Automatic annotation (TrEMBL):
Organism field: Setaria italica (Foxtail millet)
Stated name of the protein: Cytochrome P450
Cofactor(s) annotated in UniProt: heme
Encoding gene, per UniProt annotation: LOC101782889
Record's keyword annotation contains Methyltransferase: no
Keyword set, alphabetical order: Heme, Iron, Membrane, Metal-binding, Monooxygenase, Oxidoreductase, Signal, Transmembrane, Transmembrane helix
Signal peptide: 1-25
Gene3D superfamilies recorded: Cytochrome P450
Chain residues that bind heme: 459
One Gene Ontology cellular component annotation held by this UniProt entry: membrane
Classification via InterPro entries: Cyt_P450 (IPR001128), Cyt_P450_CS (IPR017972), Cyt_P450_E_grp-I (IPR002401), Cyt_P450_sf (IPR036396), Plant_metabolite_P450s (IPR051103)
Amino acid sequence: MDAPQLLLGALLFLLPAALLVRTRGKQRPRLPPGPPSLPLLGSVVWLTNTPSEIEPLLRRLFQRHGPVVALRMGVRLNVFVADRRLAHAALVEAGAALADRPALASAGFLGEGDATISRAGYGPVWRLLRRNLVAETLHPSRVRQFAPARAWVRRVLAEKLGEHSGGPDAPPPRVVETFQYAMFCLLVLMCFGERLDEPAVRDIAAAQREALIYRSRNMPVFAFLPAVTKHLFRARLDKARALRRRVDELFLPLIDARREYKNMKPGGQPRKETTFEHSYVDTLLDIKLHEDDGDRPLTDNEIILLCSEFLDAGTDTTSTGLQWIMAELVKNPAIQERLYNEIKAAADDDDKEEVSEEDVHKMPYLKAVVLEGLRKHPPAHFVLPHKAAEDMEIGGYLIPKGASVNFMVAEMSRDEREWRNPTEFSPERFLPGGDGEGVDVTGTKGIRMMPFGVGRRICAGIGVAMLHLEYFVANMVREFEWQEVPGHEVDFAEKNEFTVVMKKPLRPRLVPRRAHSTRTSTH
């Protein structure tokens, strides 16, 4: 065989090998592992599991497949991530790629679109709405303006809880209902600029909560074959629309009253004692969408949706967080006593009516208690889902464009590889020398816990949420000793509602610490 033939033979042998190596080198990463799927239905696990009970299913899948798993709901690919380092790489280092939101079929069926901060796509409308909320209502200067509102709600809370304080034979109250009412009082005032009486607040709270719980339990089904399920479950859509109409009926008069107040000429009727000088609705009435989005003000329907979002985001999460923290203080009286001693030292005067917001900033152990409550009992075990804007990788797996990606908040903050004794309630871990010292809940430098999410879609209200938790915990501990009641022992079992709540609500004995404590009229 001469040289040309040898060369040709070598080329014929090496070329396929080279192409194979090149092809392998360019192979795309595989999709995240998960259970097998059926066309249209999605993952076969939905034959025996429901989306409302997804967390135990995901734990089993993580044990089997590792920290990144995939489930299909209908034709949509849903990816779940349980590792904090992968979460940081995806949400912070590659934040723009996951800053979008998947569309909700149920929202479309209800005619709601995506005109809220939490659901809007990553674009100019979202930026406008979020910038407005952060700059005009949640900015520290605005938050300080609401200090009288917080003081009023603290008095409401103390009075409502005081009604149930008494001797050992007094029936222990379900305090979470009082927490929810008090937080609605505060958020309704911040939203509509009006201090409403108790029946009006309770009407709004009941309408909001019923709509919220109904949707969280009954609307996930529309993620499966929406073209079919919208006909099969039409009654659910009708019920959701009726609940929404009830909210509209309650909100529209308040919005109209605020519009009239804003348009009042100087020197007109004096402001009522119950009317606050600033409200979230004021800012929404001033918004004008960009030219590409209609060059128009927000509609009443859009304002109602944003008000609902504002109330939901600030009431359920805070009242849930308060219940978990107070339950831990009931179960751990030594921690409660240490916190009470810090409060007494910082407040400095037993005759003061309240622990002020300035006092709160001087209490490192209080902050540690709140952080430990959020670590062990994050009110939401998932962040809102993100949508991949482009093909990307997480943990070496392909996340195709359009896939939904979610992150396991509770799994990260309870990971025994990252936290010492994570099932214990130990605020000391957030003090100097503890394994949580210097933790940044914004996750900018690294994620250890993410109760408010991280990255570009982090909760806009993180600052005011921390203030509310610290302020109300401090005042409740100063006002009462929280004791466990035989027969109503603290049970940390969880239950999924809109947030993750105590399956068995907290029912403590409340012993007043200050006999001379002033009881102020609720309204």
